[in-house]
Amino acid sequence: MARTILNQPVVLYRKEDGTAVAVGGRCPHRHFPLASGCLKGDSIECGYHGITFGPDGRCLSIPSQTSVPQVYRIPTYPLIEHGLWLWIWMGEAHRADRALLPDLKEIGLTDPDMIARPFYVHPVQGRYQLLNDNLLDLTHLAYLHRSSIGTPENASTPEEQVKRPGCLSSRRYIRNAPAPPVMAATGRYSGLIDRITGMDFYLPGFHAGLGDMSYPADHPEHPGECLVKSRVYHAVTPSTLRSCLYFFAMAAADESRLDEMLELLKPVIAEDKFATEEIEKMLAISGEAPEELLIRSDRNAVEGRRMLQAMMDEERESAGS
Predict the structure, then answer these.
(1) pLDDT per residue over 261-271, tens digit each?
(2) What is the β-pairing status of strands 8-14 and 2-5?
(3) 0.90 surpassed by pTM
(4) Cis geometry, peptide bond prior to residue 204 (ω within 30 degrees of 0)
(5) pLDDT tens sequence across 143-168
(6) Angle CA(200)–CA(204)–CA(210) in degrees, nearest 5?
(7) Domain 2-95 belongs to what topology?
(8) How far apart are CA 170 and CA 306, in angstroms?
(9) Domain chopping of the chain, boundaries
(10) CATH topology assigned to domain 113-317
């Protein structure tokens, strides 16, 4: 599988024992994409001139000559499977730290009452930070997604924020508000509900969200009883300076709910993709850094940007020391 990550071509494949590996995606001979070659055992053979590289990046064979120069190598990248995803470290290998990944229990992936499933992956013609901004400011649900998962209360309800190293969390506790249109569309419920919405942003590009809905506390028959419990996962991978990959997954109580939401959420994710790409087009017209007139609901997104910038500054300083 070919990916472009941080402007670097990468090939992902599995060795014969099932282990996933990531190596550079460009043959150093004529720059042919290695993903267009083929696997030979645990090695990858360039489809242009047959030059073969092992999973450690070393060149194993050059068919047109008997010797293999030591300089013939391709990059390798630390890669592990964690939850529903492959996580790659594009920097110096010795700095890769599994402890930096989100805890699976914390994001709800070990809950025995929930089933998790990957849904979609979309290439997006917009920089990854625009998608981060989208997911850090959930007031947009009330307008961009008004026909599906949003109601005006997503914008009007005050937001609570919690910050800790590497993670920024937000929550809105919505009381006695109309159910979002998707509830009626699925035949579940169309009355007033209590709702908890929020997102945990694990820097630099992973967002774990929740959308729990229950009968309101004053409901005459089912006070406080759970209607829907769900978790959503948004993973944003920077590809180039102005493009990214957008992964989406969901967890729910049963397979039928996941089947249902797989179809219903397609237009929702498409709306986020549309918004991101339209903003990228506007930046191309207006210049790279037009002034933003910020509003109160930008508090969470601004804090997320600051935390991300601090991480980048720290990494830059560490590399220079």
Answers:
(1) 999 999 999 99
(2) antiparallel
(3) yes
(4) yes
(5) 999 999 999 999 999 999 999 999 99
(6) 20
(7) Rieske Iron-sulfur Protein (2.102.10)
(8) 15
(9) 2-95, 113-317
(10) Naphthalene 1,2-dioxygenase Alpha Subunit; Chain A, domain 1 (3.90.380)
